Structures are given as C-alpha cells and as structure tokens.
Amino acid sequence: PELDTDNTWTGRVGMVHEQVLSTFGERLGAFEYYFAGPRPMTQAVQSMLVQNKVPFGQLHYDSFY
Predict the structure, then answer these.
(1) What would the pLDDT profile of 12-53 be if each residue is shown by its tens digit?
(2) Widest CA span in the chain
(3) For residues 36-59, b (16+ Cβ closer than 10 Å) or e, as one string?
(4) Residue 55 DSSP code
(5) Half-sphere exposure of residue 43: CA atoms within 13 angstroms, side-chain side
(6) Which helix H or strand E contains 62, and what residues bound it?
(7) Stronger pLDDT, 61 or 7, i.e. the higher one
C-alpha cells in the first residue's frame, strides 16, 4: 500500500474506470479483466472497456447490490 508515515493514503484516487484507462491506455486489449462491485461501478468499468474495443470475452465480473 502507498501510505506515508502517519498511515495516510498517498496513492491514486478517483473512479476505478478512469484510473484503469489512464494507467493502461492503448494496452487495454492486452489483459483479462476481473472485477466485482456495486452495479454502477461494474457498468462504468465494462462500458469503458467495451468503448475502447476490449473484447467482451476478456471481461469477467460480478455486480452486487
């Protein structure tokens, strides 16, 4: 974990799908994706990946409420 000396988070913050896109960019199609979470989060991740031409067969997810 990215913590400073007083155990405060110093890593990236923001929406998961935005962090994935900014981190992997053009390489999105090179990975399998496994994700789970609340429906709005999994929908946002799935939509971002599909819009960036990641084949649906590379997405493995579970939504929960």
Answers:
(1) 889 999 999 999 999 999 999 999 999 999 999 999 999 999
(2) 42
(3) eeeeebbebbbebbeeeebeeeeb
(4) -
(5) 5
(6) strand 59-64
(7) 61
